[in-house]
Amino acid sequence: MIEIAGLRKGYRRLRGGTHRALDGFDMLVEPGQVHGFLGPNGSGKTTTLRALLGLVRADAGEMRILGHSSPSALPQVIGRVGAIVESPQFFGNFSGRRMLSLLATAGGVPQTRVEEVLAQVGLRERGKDIIKTYSLGMKQRLAVASALLKAPELLILDEPANGLDPAGIREMRELVRALAAQGVTVLISSHILGEIQLICDSVTIISRGRRVLAGPVSGVLDDFDRGDFRIRVSDLPRAAQALSAAGVAVTAAPDHLVAHRVTEPARLTELLGGQGLWISELSPLTPDLESVFLRLTDTAPASGEAKQVDDSVLPPAPPSALNEFTVQPEVPR
Ligand SMILES: Nc1ncnc2c1ncn2[C@@H]1O[C@H](COP(=O)(O)OP(=O)(O)OP(=O)(O)O)[C@@H](O)[C@H]1O
Q: CATH number of the domain that 90 lies in?
């Protein structure tokens, strides 16, 4: 559905030089998937989506959307793609239904779609109310409804859960899953990692304009499973000593131990029990997307400190290249 290879985009800095927002970024989104696009603030997610949709010009790289080159062949394919990359501006004094009706007329979409998309996003009951009375979550759903008018095969959502409360996030999750069940491929950018883990089949993680990881969510988590187990036991120092002596790698925390690369947890109970050390807890520490993300994007702040994550700088461009952005030749096909 989406193929991106070697995408580059630099923004000129006011104080000279180029900020490398995308630095040879690659992404592949397969049909029928909900694909999460994860990255820290400023890592290049929105720039990627804007470049893909022809809203900003890339310096180099290849992009295909539904098999067509982007941006050159976008007009042929854009009718099959729904996207919310920038918050759409709605007329606050219009009802949701009237707003969608106007957008349907403008987009040459039959009016029958208006009721269908209102139902799809769960806004049929409130369709008659004016938009400025909508909650943020309802406005987000109206935005999704507007992107669904043309019954897209591919839906691109940039941070759809931004600003939503837990109930709103849950509604958005259910909506995305329902769309996926109807066969819509969804690309969803977010930094709400738990959310992505819950709704996505596969992910791409971007850091400093480059892909640092891609694959099915389950595979990603398995790859990062280090076989760590948390052990609570009455005498921590003695238990740590016993485990180390038996060749088990172990780290001590104030109230527990973590044993690493454990393949047979029963051996830990046997080993400690054999020395009169009784385990009160033995639990696997399975990785979640958040720990994988923090490790790969190097954005875990030290305690009490905010981490600088957006620091890719190129040397100043020569004067001739100081246009709006640095244009590099297209990569030949
Ligand atoms: N129009 C612009 N002019 C100059 N720099 C820009 C422009 N748009 C984005 N950038 C810079 O490019 C980098 C990537 O920005 P982008 O918005 O793509 O990141 P993002 O991953 O979407 O971040 P966030 O999660 O915070 O929305 C950032 O350093 C940003 O400041």
A: 3.40.50.300
